[in-house]
Design brief:
Helix content is 63%, strand content 9%. With 521 residues, it is α+β, with helices and mostly antiparallel strands. Strand 2 and strand 3 form a beta hairpin. The longest helix is centred in the C-terminal third of the chain and has 39 residues.
């Protein structure tokens, strides 16, 4: 009830209202007169308690105010897009000359490369596609001469929206490029980021030279989140078996990685608090290694928030932390809400893990407890240790299953709606593959790191890496069949909304039914 509202609840309602404002403005263009009317109504509700003493009405008034702020934030973003200096020149017949700085590491493919260039004197970012050579680097200043174009939009893929969320409204295909300067005007972030990109490039070369195909493609995907040079048939195998998230720095991948690390570290003997901090540190180290991609950073923030929420141990606070985190990210970039599928998946997977995993753990997959030493077992200490090791292994496998199921239950409708495909064997393949992913990452990274200095040193970790990747490939080969992927085209948004409403009602019902067990009775 509103009369029992706490400051954290109030902030939760404000964030919900803000996100609803962004969502409504994204779907329909709200007339200014209507916005002013809602704003006045909100202000009246805010000042009402001065005369009537109803403080809960103030919360409703501020919620309306945050709803208006959400609308305004989206309108500001739309105004900036419509008035972008370079975007106004899109699709003209005349070539223009622009000078700018490369603001990210080049996206290098087999026969071409893509450069993100921030134009001097403007906030505009142009995505330039050019030949594979010569090489360009982060912070190089270049001059480009060509025709800016609007990103293409098709029925299968809206490239415009995909780029727009990253502040890119114009593209250039194979313009004339001249290197103007290689001088660096560093700040702390750009200096460190350049070193990260340099290290990532060295690691890529080490993997490429020390590992055979297709092992090197899998390792680059798992360690660096780079699957851009992966052959099409291998990508198709990942998609058909539901393993594509493993080779991408995606929201669901970061979340699953975080929730796999925690039980693994617990199984290795760490305390719960230590496992939490190490999991967050290792996840951020992975994002850093991948080159700090924006999608990965957002996913890591969301994943860290989920773990922090779980550490608090109260589900209602967990949900609030996730909603507040999502609202802050949308405040920074309102286009994430509808145009960033990775953001949607990480948010939904977070809620799935928070609300569905405890039900699965209690009702479907109860954990085994520690084996206790009895007087007869005191002399058989090794038997107790073996039992505890088997228990931890069993519980770790159950955690993989429950995390995967709970994340996919909430994420699957968005995947179907956007991609139209359902990998039918996803749960089985993930349960067979996910337990070895942390080991592939650790051993593969160690082999590639040592291989940067000596091929012989890299061989120490090379052989176990190859064995694990061979197992990975074998599992994928077994389950990569024509029947393993189901195509569902033109799924209505109404069905997606109905799915989430039904899921929410079922979760509420199950929690009420299991409430005594949640409380430990």
């Amino acid at each position: 009830p509103l009369k029992d509202i706490t400051p954290s609840k109030a902030l939760f309602f404000f964030c919900i209202a803000f996100v609803m404002g962004v969502a409504l403005e994204s779907i329909i263009k709200i007339p200014r007169a209507f916005v002013w009317g809602i704003l006045i109504a909100g202000l009246i509700l805010i000042i009402t308690p001065i005369f009537f003493g109803k403080k809960e009405i103030t919360v409703l008034g501020f919620s309306i105010l945050f709803f208006i702020i959400g609308i305004a934030r989206m309108q500001i973003s739309e105004f900036n897009i419509a008035n972008d200096k370079i975007a106004k020149l899109n699709d003209s017949q005349e070539k223009i000359t622009l000078t700018g700085e490369i603001i990210d590491g080049p996206d290098v493919r087999d026969s071409y490369q893509k450069l993100k260039v921030r134009i001097d004197g403007a906030q505009s970012i142009v995505l330039v596609t050019t030949a594979r050579y010569p090489d360009y680097n982060y912070l190089d200043k270049i001059e480009i001469k060509g025709k800016p174009e609007s990103p293409i939009q098709t029925e299968k893929f809206n490239y415009r929206n995909y780029l727009m969320k990253d502040g890119i409204y114009s593209v250039m295909g194979f313009p004339k490029i001249e290197l103007v300067s290689m001088d660096r005007d560093y700040n702390i972030f750009s200096f460190l980021y350049e070193k990260v990109l340099f290290f990532k490039k060295k690691l890529e070369k080490s993997i490429d030279s020390n590992f055979p195909a297709p092992h090197k493609f899998i390792l680059e995907g798992i360690i660096l989140g780079n699957d851009k040079n992966m052959p099409k048939d291998l990508k198709d195998g990942f998609n058909a078996t539901g393993l594509s998230h493993i080779t991408a720095v995606s929201g669901s991948n970061i979340l699953i990685l975080l929730f796999l690390l925690t039980p693994l570290l617990l199984a290795l003997g760490l305390y719960k608090g230590q496992a939490f901090y190490f999991s967050v540190i290792l996840a951020w180290a992975y994002i850093l290694l991948a080159g700090l991609p924006a999608s990965g950073v957002r996913a890591a923030i969301m994943g860290s928030a989920v773990l922090a929420a779980e550490k608090l141990g109260r589900e209602n606070k967990s949900s609030r932390i996730i909603i507040i985190t999502a609202a802050l990210m949308i405040l920074q970039n309102p286009l994430l809400l509808f145009y960033d599928i990775g953001f949607q998946l990480s948010f939904l997977a977070s809620l799935g893990i928070i609300h569905i995993k405890p039900i699965i753990d209690l009702k479907v997959m109860p954990r085994l407890k520690n084996a206790r030493k009895t007087s007869e077992q005191t002399k058989k200490i090794y038997a107790v240790k073996i039992k505890n090791f088997l228990r931890k292994t069993y519980n770790y496998l159950l955690d993989i299953a429950s995390v995967t199921i709970s994340a996919q239950i909430f994420a699957l409708p968005v995947i179907i709606y956007n991609f139209g495909n359902v990998p039918l064997v996803s749960l089985i393949t993930n349960m067979l593959i996910l337990p070895i992913i942390p080991f592939i990452m650790a051993l593969g990274f160690a082999s590639a790191l040592l291989g940067m200095f000596s091929n012989f040193m890299g061989w120490v970790f090379y052989l176990p890496s190859i064995i694990l990747i061979d197992y990975f490939l074998k599992i994928m080969d077994i389950f990569y069949k024509p029947w393993t992927i189901k195509s569902l085209k033109n799924v209505s948004l109404i069905w997606i909304i109905f799915y989430y409403i039904a899921s929410a009602l079922l979760i509420v019902f199950m929690k009420r039914k299991l409430k005594p067990r949640f409380l430990g009775y």
